[in-house]
Each structure stands twice: as C-alpha cells, then as structure tokens.
Amino acid sequence: MHGKEVRLNRILRNGKALIIPMDHGVSMGPVKGLVDMDDTVSKVVEGQASAVLLHKGIIRSLKAVPSCGIIAHFSASTALGPDSNQKVRTGSVEEAIRLGADAVSLHINIGTESEPEMLLKLGEFADKCDKWQIPLIAMMYARGKNVADPIDPTNVAMVARIGAELGADIVKCNYTGSPDTFKEIVAGCPVPIVIAGGAKADTDRAVLEMVEGAMQSGCIGLTFGRNVFQHNNPTGIVKAIAKIVYEGWTVDETLEVVTI
Q1: Catalytic residue selected from 16, 23, 87, 121
Q2: Has 141 been annotated as catalytic?
Q3: Which of 56, 87, 172, 243 is catalytic?
C-alpha cells in the first residue's frame, strides 16, 4: 500500500468524500461560522465530515486534533487585493507533513491573467506531492474576463480535465446544475471529482438536491463550506448530507428523519 492510498483513506470514508473547507477566513475575514474555529470544527466532525480543509495557521491553533482527515490549503488571495482571482501559494508539501496533514489543496482559476503562473505551480506541486506521497486536491474554477458562465458544462469539463492532466489526485469543481450534464464532466476526468458548494443556498432542500444530483452523476462527494459552517445547525446539515453521500439516501428520506 502506497502512502497516498493510506492518506486518502484518512480523508475519505469508504471512498466517499464529505469535506468541509473553512479556508474562507483569508479571503473574507472572520465571517459567521469562522469566529470560533474549534467550535465549528467540532460540530462538523460530530456530523460525520470525512475531512476538514484549513489554512496552516488554523491547523496550528486548534486546541484539539479533529477525529477526521485534515487537508492543508496552500492558496490565498483577499477581497482587498488588486485581483482576488490571482491565487498565490502559501505553503509547501514538507510543511503539510510537519503539520500532520493528510492531504493538501491548491486553488486554480482558469481564464485569469495569472493562469500561467498558477498552472506552473500546480504542476510543480503535484511533483512534490508524488515525491512525499501526499494526496493533492486541485480546486479548479473557470473565472476571469474570458469566462461568460463559470458553470457552463464545457467550461467545467475543461477545468476539471486540466486539474487531472497536471497531476491532481482529486479535482474539485462547480456543479453544473443537473446529473445529466455533470455525468459528462465525470466521464471526461480520469481522477475522482468532488463538487463545490458555491454561494449560500436559500433552503436545506436546495443543498441536499445538489448533493443527490452530484452523487447520481458518479462523483465521490463534495466540499461544502458556507452551506455548512454558516448554517444555523452545522452538525445537522452535515448529518443530512452524510446520509446521501455515505448511504445513498434520497433527499426526501433524509428530510423525513434528520433534524436540521
């Protein structure tokens, strides 16, 4: 068994991903849900998250080690900067190992002026991840002046494939809105896919329907941030999502028995 396989088993549950990214503090500041990080992490862990995704400073600051996988996120930009789509690298694979992380992630925006630099860093990082046997998650988005619709299936298929081509072990991308269109994304990407949560949804049903559709499409799960950590009951919504991801429940079945 290789190191990547061992570590992937720590961030997945029976091959399925229920990852809660909470890296938004760099781009957005201490917004709702990200003030008391220990409290929020404990709530999503209680809900059966397979992993949490955090910047290195938050990993260091946690008072207790989460009883789930830990993913170190090494990309950053801020809402106050000249170009929030230009993500810079903020750490190394060796640093992730020192932190005790089970995987690392990078955010890449395709279609921006800084795309070439981000692609170069993704390729270099993938090589380092192979050297140290650390799984790499590539958050791949179509953004910038050349992108009319970031969830257009053609755009999503392209960015997902780029992530796989350049060495990611798991690709995160936007959901295209329906199982039929997203099946094509999954078919065209030779590594497992997880969907992004996007903006805060209006209802719990909308969140769960997105999860159900994505799982029907053949992806391995999701990485939901704001729709979890800004929820009034983070533990409840994660438990509901877990029923669909891990056990194949329907949205209606989940809403009937899970208190959110």
Answers
A1: 23
A2: yes
A3: 172
Structure-token pair, residue 44: 């999503």
Annotated catalytic residue within 141, 169, 175, 239:
141
Q: Where are the alpha helices (DSSP H) in 47-114?
A: 56-61, 93-99
pLDDT tens digits, 29-67: 999 999 999 999 999 999 999 999 999 999 999 999 999
**What are the angstrom distances between the C-alpha of 2 and each of 72, 133, 169, 212, 220?**
20, 7, 13, 31, 20
Rounded Cα gap, residues 156 and 193, in angstroms:
11
DSSP 13: B
Q: DSSP string of 36-61?
A: SHHHHHHHHHHTT-SEEEE-HHHHHH
Model pLDDT for residues 206-243, shown as the tens digit of each residue? 999 999 999 999 999 999 999 999 999 999 999 999 99
Tell me if 162 sits within 8 A of 197, measured CB to CB.
no
Mean pLDDT, range 148-152, rounded to an integer: 93
- pTM more than 0.85: yes
d(CA 71, CA 113): 28
Our CA angle for 53, 64, 1, nearest 5°, is: 55
Q: Are 65 and 8 in contact (CB under 8 A)?
A: no
Q: What pLDDT, on the 0 to 100 scale, is given for residue 193?
A: 98
Cα dist. 5→106, 130, 241 in Å?
A: 19, 12, 24
Cβ neighbours of residue 167 closer than 8 Å, sequence gap 6 or more: 122, 123, 125, 126, 127, 129, 130, 136
Residue 17 neighbours by CB under 8 Å, 6+ apart = 11, 50, 51, 170, 192, 194, 220, 221, 222, 223, 245
